[in-house]
Amino acid sequence: MRPITDEEREALDNIAHGVDAGSVHPWVHERVAYDMDEHVLWLLNEDSATGSEAHDTKTAPLLAERLEEWDEEDADLWCDSAAKGMILYYQQQGLHARKAYKQGVNSPSERVRWFNRLTKIVIDPNTCPLAAEQIPALEYVITPSGDITETLPKVDDDTLDAAGYAASVWIRQGL
């Protein structure tokens, strides 16, 4: 975990966006980049909101503004497939919202395996504060007998889900 320099940001080209729906738990948008040669995932920017601030009518303009800021208006937003209403609303607002499937090769367990195969994950704590808090704190579930499982707890995983949705295109291609 460290700040990502402007020079590093400019050198990254495989940029993707993931959105995890939420209201009680945080709604999260993660902007990530993937260095396929080095197998490094870069968490570049994030937005998060809870409660009424996480409503589609508030998050759609925020996403449109952020994509314009990065000159990425045509970027696909890989969204939680369970959030059909959010995806439809985003599409109606002109955003390129798409379903990030949670089955098969992009199931939660496969996403975690993909993350584990990475050389490293670089999280900029200044621009991704929630990811900097959540991701390092995630630990596999341990059984009462002390065995470590391949299961992550389903709490405080919002940024991991959003980053996983963004990475789903690379995960599905086996990159």
Description:
This protein is an alpha/beta fold and 175 residues long. It has one domain: Nucleotidyltransferase, domain 5 (2-Layer Sandwich), CATH 3.30.420.280. The protein has seven helices and six strands; from the N terminus they run αβββαβαβαβααα. The protein has a six-stranded mixed β-sheet with strand order 5-4-1-2-3-6, with helices on both faces. The longest helix has 14 residues, at 56-69.
Total domains:
1
CATH-level-2 architecture? 2-Layer Sandwich
Please give the order of strands in the largest beta sheet: 5-4-1-2-3-6
How are helices and strands ordered from N to C?
A: HEEEHEHEHEHHH
* Structural class by helix and strand composition: alpha/beta
Largest sheet, in brief, is: 6 strands, mixed
CATH topology: Nucleotidyltransferase, domain 5
> What is the residue-mean pLDDT, rounded to a whole number?
88
Write down how many β-strands occur, each being a DSSP E stretch of 2 or more residues: 6
